[in-house]
Every structure is written in C-alpha cells, then in structure tokens.
Write a structure and sequence with these properties.
The protein is of the alpha+beta class. It has a domain of 76 residues: THUMP domain-like (Alpha-Beta Plaits), CATH 3.30.70. Helix content is 26%, strand content 24%. It contains 2 helices and 4 strands, in the order βαββαβ. A 4-stranded antiparallel sheet has the order 2-3-1-4. The relative contact order is 0.23.
C-alpha cells in the first residue's frame, strides 16, 4: 500500500505586530522626521527584498525615529538583521506579565 505524499498547508503565515526602533545617525543625533521616514522605507524595502514578501501594514512614527509593522515572522526577523535597526519590540505579549496567584485565602490582620 503506497502512502500519499504529505501536503503542505497553503495557509497564510501568522502575522506578528512589532515596533521597530531605528538607530540614531552617525553623529548620535536623531534624524529629522523626513530622514526617519526615508530610513524606515529603506529598511522595509530591504526586508521585502530579502524575504520576497511585503508587510501587511506599517506606520512610521516620524518624530520618534521608529515605525510599527504587521508582517510574517520571517519579515520581522529580516528587519531585525538590518544595520539601521536598533531594536524590535513585539506589540502583543501572549503571556501575562504578572504571576497569577496559586490560591486565594483570607488573611487575618
């Protein structure tokens, strides 16, 4: 009995939302809003060339030298490897930051 080859799922990759912080200019000063916008476009274009995909959405925060992006994990990884990128911060954390209590009990003071 022959087994059929496994089929690969053709579903779209899961989207990741992140904020990308760009590096300051060479003289450690923050770029102008126009320079930030141009730098963000350059970084997004480089990641698109590397991965062959495009982000689902992006928004440049011109005065903060950063931008938000919604894209595949592969695209986010490509952004993180760009020399112009200082930091990539995920937008949503699946794990709560506070530790949940094990049990509740009354305390008499």
């Amino acid at each position: 009995m022959a087994t059929s080859p496994t089929r690969q799922s053709k579903t779209a990759p899961a989207m990741v939302e992140a904020v990308v912080v760009l590096r300051p200019l060479d003289n450690d000063s923050l770029p102008s809003p126009a320079q930030s916008k141009k730098l963000a476009s350059t970084v997004l274009r480089a990641a698109a060339q590397e991965t062959g995909t495009k982000p689902a959405s992006s928004s440049v925060f011109e005065n903060l030298n950063s931008f938000s992006v919604r894209a595949s994990a592969e695209f986010i990884d490509a952004l993180a490897r760009c020399k112009e990128v200082a930091q990539v911060l995920p937008n949503d954390a699946e794990v709560p930051e506070l530790i949940a209590p094990v049990a509740k009990r009354s305390v008499t003071l």
